[in-house]
Amino acid sequence: MNLKQFLARKNIVITAHRYGIDALGAMAQGLFCSLLIGTILNTVGSQFGIGFLTATVVTINEVPYTVGGLASFMSGPAMAVAIGYALQAPPLVLFSLTTVGYACNVLGKAGGPLAVLFVAVLAAECGKAVSKETKVDILVTPIVTTLIGIGFAYLIAPPIGGAASAFGQVIRRATELQPFLMGIIVSVLVGIALTLPISSAAICSVLGLTGLAGGAAVAGCSAQMIGFAVMSYKENGWGGLISQGLGTSMLQMPNIVKNPKIWTAPILTSAITGPLATCLFKLEMNGAAINSGMGTCGLCGQLGVWTGWVAPSAEALAEGAMAIVPTAFDWAGLLLISFVLPAVLCPIINAFCRKIGWVKDGDLTLS
Question: Is the pTM of this model over 0.85?
């Protein structure tokens, strides 16, 4: 049996789609169900004085953890298991990835999510390669998966984390120095990533996009989601409005493939709202970085901004962020950037695109 046949038998598919879309998207879901949910629970508990959300559930190494704290603490294992699930790893491999994910996230520090992505993929594929190849599979598969995962985590997680953190730092600093230009670039690129079948949330988390850069990312994602939702209301009605506005603009990808020009209005809208967010409203994302790439999906982007106002994340605190009492101007900026401007600008720009023949009736209809 040659290598190609062996890989096919083991369901090891080495493609950009499998790793860059399936695994990355699953990682974002794992991060969402741990770090993001934990952050939301902690914030809601502290701001509204909900006892069971602020009470210490367990103390580990003299560190007290709430319900939300425990959820955030388990983000590494959650991401690794989600990646293994996307790669269709067998049970023994999947369960072994919990240890691998925890090690990667700790060793990778600020760049933990990116380290988890690389190492969990390597460990999962190696585990799949040896799975059910011996009579003592229950020993061999977990040992191989764990040792390879921990070994790679020890070797490459720190430099990966350092590189991701440094690149994110460059983006954040560049946005502070050139808020207009970087407001456009970050808003447009992260917004496009949100609509493409990749994970903008994972990208923002990997790069640690907080501060003004995070605010620009929120603007770009919201422009895509609210923009597509409102400008396609004629074709898709209330169902399309909600599924795109609070779900994902990725639903439009089949239509974008057929006619890329329908993307013009959301992209131009994000190019407008991005610099408005950074230059006029000084909109910052000081909650968990994953929120920067969520847009209006479940209102996570907006909840992240609010969380950053009242209880900045550790990443944001490290960058000098402080808790504030939001003013009416802050709230107006968040609402205008997230909802009002995309809902107004995108249909106007799209109407011009229709007038010149770039967009026709039915081009935005969801299947």
Answer: no
Q: Which two tokens stand for residue 149?
A: 């995962």
Distance CA 154, CA 233 (A): 51
What pLDDT is attached to residue 1?
Answer: 64
Axis crossing angle, helix 112-130 with helix 75-86, rounded to the nearest 10? 50
The C-alpha atoms of residue 135 and residue 331 are separated, in whole angstroms, by: 62
Describe the crossing of helices 137-177 and 112-130 by its angle, rounded to 10 degrees.
160
The CB density around residue 121, as the number of other CB atoms within 10 Å, is: 22
Closest-CA residue to 360 (of 346, 345, 350, 348)? 350
Residue 87: how many other CB atoms lie within 10 Å: 24
Residue 257: its pLDDT value, please?
A: 87
In sequence order, what are the residues at sequence separation of 6 or more whose Cβ sits closer than 8 angstroms to the Cβ of residue 119?
A: 80, 100, 104, 149, 152, 153, 156, 157
What single DSSP character describes residue 367?
-
* Spatial CA neighbour of 128 closest among 89, 87, 77: 89
Q: Tokens 């990778």 belong to which residue?
A: 108
The HSE-up count of residue 139 (CA atoms within 13 Å, CB side) is 3
- Helix/strand/coil for 149: helix
192's tokens = 């496009």
Q: In the chain, which residues have pLDDT < 50?
A: none
Q: Quick one: which of 206, 279, 258, 266 has its CA closest to 232?
A: 266
Q: Which residue has tokens 């949100």? A: 194
Which sign, positive or negative, has the C-alpha torsion 172, 173, 174, 178?
Answer: positive
Give tens-digit pLDDT for 315-348. 788 878 888 999 999 999 999 999 999 999 999 9
Specify the DSSP class assigned to residue 315. H
What was the pLDDT predicted at 31? 81
What is the structure's pLDDT at 344? 97
